[in-house]
Amino acid sequence: MEKGVVLKSTGSRYRVLYGGGKIIDCSIKGKLRIKEFRTTNPVAVGDNILFEMEKKTYSGIITEVLDRRNYILRKASNLSKHSQILAANIDQVFLMITIVLPETPVEFIDRFLITAEAYRVPAKIIINKTDLYGEKELSKMEYLEKMYNKIGYESIRLSLKEMTNLDVLRSLMKGKTSLISGNSGVGKTTLLNAFNPLLNLKTAEISDYHKQGKHITTFPEMHQMPFDAFVIDTPGIRGFGVVDMERNEIYHFFREIFGKSKECRFNNCLHLDEPECAVRSAVEKGEISFLRYRSYLNIMDGDNGKYR
Ligand SMILES: Nc1nc2c(ncn2[C@@H]2O[C@H](COP(=O)(O)OP(=O)(O)OP(=O)(O)O)[C@@H](O)[C@H]2O)c(=O)[nH]1
Ligand SMILES: [Mg+2]
Ligand SMILES: [Zn+2]
User: Fold this and answer.
1) How big is the CA angle at 36 (ends 34 and 38), to the nearest 5 degrees?
2) For ligand 1, is residue 236 a contact (CB within 6 Å)?
């Protein structure tokens, strides 16, 4: 029996890292002992597993998934019944956004952040492609930075074209397992190639017509970095269904709204149109950003957050 960690899962095949740097292809056979609930993938990227080695074929059979420290689930949309484990055992998530080419909508950012809050995984924001920004984009970037920094989300400016600030990211990722998420075309895979050019992963220019990414990365994959870190590249998010949240707990994951909610008159206030709602009056006074509040309302509306 050997112990390993899953780097990639494509349907029924799993690429596993073991023995301090060796890689083996594994499958599952028979009944796998899994304590988790219904997901479409019983074994996920980042899972620590036990496997039996088949010497003849140099392949492995996964016999057990060890307890997960944490995980992030993802649904295709709010309407979808099936959820998938995006990755397990992660220390932090980075949401990569861009102001243009493509433009990441604020609601998209907020859907991601509340998901990270719900799974209690620390989240930071990477703002990529700063080389493309003119005056208008720069001021929008500064606006978003202020908005998110104020409520405790760190943001890092990046240009992978000019290779600026890579050292900042490196030091934030050192010694940890980080997941990178974001919409298609923002540059997630380009970042991994910048960290380790030997990876030579596939990337593609965004479409001229739609100014959107082309969904080039199709499976989450964990890569070992040359600086003592694991980084998980993920497929561009299309929609971001909010998983397993009750209507009356959604605001718990908007940090500043949750903080303010203690001052509402009614303790079951949902901050919609209840009287003496401290959250709404904070939005009116500009203490809570109306963009964040609008994201909250849209998520409460059950709009399933479909973006290309
Ligand atoms: N100008 C500029 N272009 C960049 C930068 N970073 C990445 N790109 C380009 O953006 C395009 C998309 O990059 P990818 O790395 O494929 O994007 P992705 O986020 O992995 O996209 P998916 O795999 O589809 O989710 C490529 O043409 C990159 O060269 C940057 O900092 N500046
Ligand atoms: Mg990619
Ligand atoms: Zn309220």
Assistant:
1) 110
2) yes
pLDDT mean over 226-253: 86
In the prediction, which pLDDT does 308 show?
Answer: 30
- Across the chain, mean pLDDT equals 91
Q: What is the pLDDT of residue 243?
A: 65
Residue 290: pLDDT over 80: yes
Domains within the chain, CATH numbers bracketed: 2-65 (2.40.50.140), 71-233 (3.40.50.300), 247-300 (1.10.40.50)
Ligand with minimal distance to 268 CA: 3
CB 40 within 8 A of CB 82: yes
* Model pLDDT, residue 32: 66
Task: Give the side-chain half-sphere CA count within 13 A for 111.
Answer: 33
Q: How far apart are CA 14 and CA 65, in angstroms?
A: 12
Which range has highest mean pLDDT (61-65, 188-192, 205-209)?
188-192
104 within ligand 1 shell (Cβ under 6 A) = no
Residue nearest to atom 12 of ligand 1 (CA): 185
Kindly report whether the global pTM for this prediction surpasses the value 0.85.
Answer: yes
Atom of ligand 1 nearest to the CA of 184: 25
The gap from C-alpha 304 to its chain's centroid, in whole angstroms, comes to 17
Q: Could you tell me if the CB of 215 is within 6 A of ligand 1?
A: yes
Q: What is the average pLDDT across 10-27?
A: 93
Q: In sequence order, what are the beta bridge partners of 54?
A: 59
Rounded distance between C-alpha atoms, residue 214 and residue 183, angstroms: 10
